[in-house]
Design brief:
lysosome, single chain, AB_hydrolase_fold, EC 3.4.16.2, Four Helix Bundle (Hemerythrin (Met), subunit A), 12% strand, 493 residues, alpha/beta, 8-stranded mixed beta sheet, Rossmann fold
Length: 493
């Protein structure tokens, strides 16, 4: 069954094939956070090579990075370096509260580096997304090299300051990989909600959706079961013009459903809604992807307590009320837009390209162990869709080759934190590999909850996680300074 997923991108594009839907619609869900006390930073630009690994393209571009040094203890205070995600770096800077909260304790400088091709860091300016030739340098390897070169430039002015990389979601993957690829540049890394194993033959393609389903199943009686039943109900009602009109009115859609193919888009929109709710199931009110109540899935599930005898219309009335918890919690939306489920601060088109090159993350559903319609993963279909969009084909196993897959025990000083409610934990490191490749699990945490600002409603598990992360940071910094002192003594001999 072909499906359609629409994105708010630079050109309002729509994707028309099953293969790309699961890979692209979540876009690794890099979330912003609720409003917090004002912060101050300075904005800088650094000249980066467009191509770090070849010699024909010798052009440069300006990489944006943000610096906050209010608490930095000169001359050798540590640097916490945020490895930017697929979006505007100011969004992550303003909302990664954990770094701001520990800066004073560590006497640390904070640096937030923007990922190439996102925000203002465009290698070819307005032409950066014009075609695949210009997009060719949008890779994680190039981004990591950007970070390494930038850090080395900073370190030339403060050589005794140890650097720790920090990131969440895709940014967390980059944080871990930066430590793996450039251990001479960073002394350790915090990789929060980083699915570094969500690649072919590393984890089951259905694991992601199983966790989403578990979140709903334990948040309300019959909740997951009724969502599972809703797809057939939508198929039944959307089979007629009057049914399409009823669905459009019941869900207050901005663009009415007019054809059966519109119902496919509608179902994809709902599927993405349930996934986003799983990622942002936080214990307090928050306003980022959408304004939401505390424990939003529990609130959603109050509308989905029907028994198995419920009619299609009653069931979908409950689903519409549940969806409006996500899209209209404040009551300010006059209609619901099926082409938008999350913030536009994320670079959807850029991530789509990355998914079509290196970030091949198989996802599938079976409708039994999860609450979604059955959908197989087909690399060939995925590859064909990518070729149709960009004229390129993904390298199925390149990420495993490049970053070591599950064979990473030779590395050191990386914390992998994961929330038990977060579907991305399916591809995360959830057990200790060595004494210095450690897992911190947050059973009642959603997507990188530990990187958010602390609140009085935080569960004890995330408070403990943050305290342990800070302890590791302090140990890494102390060891780095000890080594630096020893090296300095040797140089004097």
């Amino acid at each position: 069954m072909a499906t359609v997923t629409c994105f708010i991108t630079l050109s309002l594009a729509c994707l028309h094939v099953t293969a790309l839907k699961s890979q692209l619609f979540t876009r690794l869900g890099d979330l912003s956070y609720s409003s917090e006390p004002p912060i101050t930073y300075e904005t800088f630009y650094f000249n980066q090579k467009i191509d770090h690994f070849g010699f024909l393209e010798d052009g440069t571009f300006k990489q944006r990075y943000l610096v906050a040094d209010k608490h930095w203890q000169q001359p050798d205070g540590p640097i916490l370096f945020y490895t930017g995600n697929e979006g505007d770096i100011t969004w992550f800077c303003n909302n990664t509260g954990f770094m701001w909260e520990i800066a004073e304790d560590l006497g640390a400088m904070l640096v937030f580096a923007e990922h190439r091709y996102y925000g203002e860091s465009l290698p070819f300016g307005q032409d950066s997304y014009s075609d695949s030739k210009h997009l060719n340098y949008l890779t994680s390897e190039q981004a990591l090299a950007d970070f390494a070169v930038l850090i080395q430039s900073l370190k030339s002015k403060m050589p005794e300051s140890p650097v720790i990389s920090v990131g969440g979601s895709y940014g967390g993957m980059l944080s871990a990989w930066l430590r793996m690829k450039y251990p001479n540049v960073v002394v350790g890394a915090l990789a929060a909600s980083a699915p570094i194993w969500q690649f072919p033959r590393m984890v089951g393609c259905g694991d992601f959706y199983k966790i989403v389903t578990q979140d709903f199943a334990k948040s309300g009686q019959n909740c997951a079961a009724n969502i599972r039943s809703s797809w057939k109900a939508i198929n039944n009602i959307s089979s007629t013009a009057s049914g399409l009109q009823w669905l459009s009115e019941e869900f207050s859609l901005c663009s009415p459903l007019k054809a059966k193919t519109d119902a496919v888009v509608f179902k994809s929109w709902l599927q993405e809604t349930w996934v986003n709710l799983a990622m942002v199931d936080y214990p307090y009110e928050a306003s980022f992807l959408q304004p939401l109540p505390a424990w939003p899935i529990q609130v959603v599930c109050k509308h989905l307590t029907f028994d198995s005898k419920v009619s299609d219309y009653d069931l979908l009335h409950g689903v519409s009320q549940a969806a409006k918890v996500y899209y209209n919690y404040t009551g300010s939306s006059s209609c619901l837009n099926t082409s938008q489920t999350a913030t536009s601060s994320l670079g959807a088109l850029g991530w789509t390209y990355q998914a079509c090159t290196e970030m091949v993350m198989p996802m599938c559903t079976d409708g039994v162990q999860d609450m979604f319609e059955p959908e197989d993963w087909s690399f060939q279909a995925f590859s064909d869709e990518c070729y149709g969009m960009f004229g390129i084909r993904p390298r199925e196993d390149w990420a495993g080759t490049l970053y070591g897959g599950k064979d990473i025990s030779s590395h050191s000083n990386i914390i992998f934190s994961n929330g038990g409610l977060d579907p991305w934990s399916s591809g995360g490191v959830t057990y200790n590999i060595t004494d210095s490749l450690v897992s911190i699990m947050i059973p009642d945490g959603a997507h990188h909850l530990d990187l958010r600002y602390s609140t009085s409603l935080d569960p004890p598990s995330v408070r403990s996680a943050r305290a342990l992360e800070l302890k590791y940071f302090q140990e890494w910094i102390e060891k780095a300074k000890t080594r630096s002192g020893q090296t300095g003594s040797e140089n004097q001999l």
